[in-house]
Amino acid sequence: MGQERFADVVERFTGVGAGEPPAETVKRWHEELERGFRRLQNFHGLVTNPVEPRTGQTPRVEVYKRNKSRLYRYESSRTHRIPVLFVPNLGISRPYIFDLLPGGSFVEHMTRQGFDFYMLDWGVFGPEDNDLTVEDCVTRILPRMARRVLETSSFVATHPEVPVRNFVNMAGPIDFAKVGLFGLWLGKQNFNVDRFVDTLGSVPADLVKAGFKLLKPTMDLSTNLNLWWNLWNDKYVEGFQALSKWANEYVAFPGEFFRQWVRDFYQDNKLYRGELVMGGRPVRLERITCPVFVVGAKEDYIAPPECVQALIDAVGSRDKQYVELPGGHISLIAGRGAAVHCWPKVSGWLGTRS
Amino acid sequence: MADAAAPNQLFEQWRKQFEEGAQAWARLVTPPAPAAPPDPTAFWRPVLDQGVQTWAKLFAQTPATPELLTQWKQFLDQWIEAWSKVLGQTMGTEQFAKLMGQSLDQFLVAQGPIKKAADQQVEQALQALNLPSRSQVTAVAKQIVELEERIERLEDTITAALRRLGDQGPR
């Protein structure tokens, strides 16, 4: 390529010699430059003066505690009679994702819709809890939490033994034969859960983190690229900081919990097959007869929609509904998309039945 | 025509480099087993083609606009998405799962005795210093958890008994 031809290319590209550029183009370059400056400003702020995001700000009171677990009741102008008990996953992550920031909080949305809202925080388990099993959580801790909800909300359940009026499953895996990469990696032929738990005692938080990072190795790259692209936007940066804080705060699994979780659910799919026994009683999904609402996320690679949707066919309820919404496992519940797609659907469905 | 030839030549070179790179990666990530190996170039090709076309269009524009940056961002998004699919396919194979399981097993087999020996040494050192070891502290914490559970059960029993008494009413 000769020097003269290269100059031609530069001239064509920059528009030198082609007369004045259109006013619209100049205006947009100005805007882009301004964004560039704000990007640099925010980047400087992020690096030199990182602000701890104030998550979980919806007012609440602790109504019960048991070992590391806490039950919180959130302030609301209660208009619905039936209280809502929200039970997040145990281990993996902290539950403040559901109450991330004012204006971007599922809990805040539910309380504003007039629900008497309770959330269970399983807490951060230590080595002294390594003997805790899934069965302990389901048969000992959960019923107590439900009882405390009934007591504090002054709601009298028709069936105090199983006081569930409505059931909502938000991206919770049910048919583990369709659970994707984790199902393959944790399968009997590839993963020796006994050796794992016997050697390590529990699943350290760093290992949980590594497992989730491996599930989507390009996630950090695209997250950082999107951060750079939106770094001029203060609101985006605030949301990013809160989400990033949550996304890097992994929680260890108690050893026996992990053993039972992997063996009974990932490896033997006992819940869906109707072979699960808890507290000496068989667990049968078809015996669920209350109204059921199931929400799956289209791009969920942790609990793919087909494994979540399986609950609809398995339960014995007549009033049941499945919705599949855009987003992934986290963006289903947190973020701008969730406020538009997911929260109103959940509160709307519950509202007419509460 | 001479104007258009220079960027085209650049793009051709760039495209060739990308394709060679993609093929090299394909050779690396494709398992030698004959069973349905993933084909990363199948993901790469449309992204590359689209990217190159977009850039060719942009270079033909005079003058350059901020659209250039948006297009670049879109290209990077597609590039990351293509890689994500390639990696997802590779990691979704039985061979990968087996390999990962074997590596983890090897790590655990090696880790077990090391951890045991290290724990013993730390315990001996703490004992020599007359300090409680981690396992001793854990045992105490476990006892507290068990005590809490017992109290809880007692509370439940008393509450149930009181409820029954209340239901029976004054005689």
- The string of secondary-structure elements of chain B, in order, is HHHHH
N-to-C span of chain A: 75 Å
How much of the sequence lies in strands of chain A comes to 5-15%
Structural class of chain B: mainly alpha
Write down how many β-strands of chain B occur, each being a DSSP E stretch of 2 or more residues.
0
What count of structural domains of chain A?
2
Provide the gyration radius of chain B in Å. Answer: 33 Å
Which range best describes the helical content of chain A: under 10%, 10-25%, 25-40%, 40-55%, 55-70% or over 70%?
40-55%
Order of helices and strands of chain A: HHEEEEHEHEHHHHHEHHEEEHEHH
Q: What percent of the residues of chain B sit in helical stretches (DSSP H or I)?
A: over 70%
Number of strands of chain A: 11
Tell me, briefly, the overall form of chain B.
elongated
CATH fold topology of the largest domain in chain A: Rossmann fold
CATH superfamily of the largest domain in chain A: Alpha/Beta hydrolase fold, catalytic domain
Low-confidence stretches of chain A: none
Estimate what percentage of residues of chain B fall within beta strands: under 5%
Oligomer: heterodimer
Low-confidence stretches of chain B at least 5 residues in length (pLDDT < 50)? none
Structural class of chain A: alpha/beta
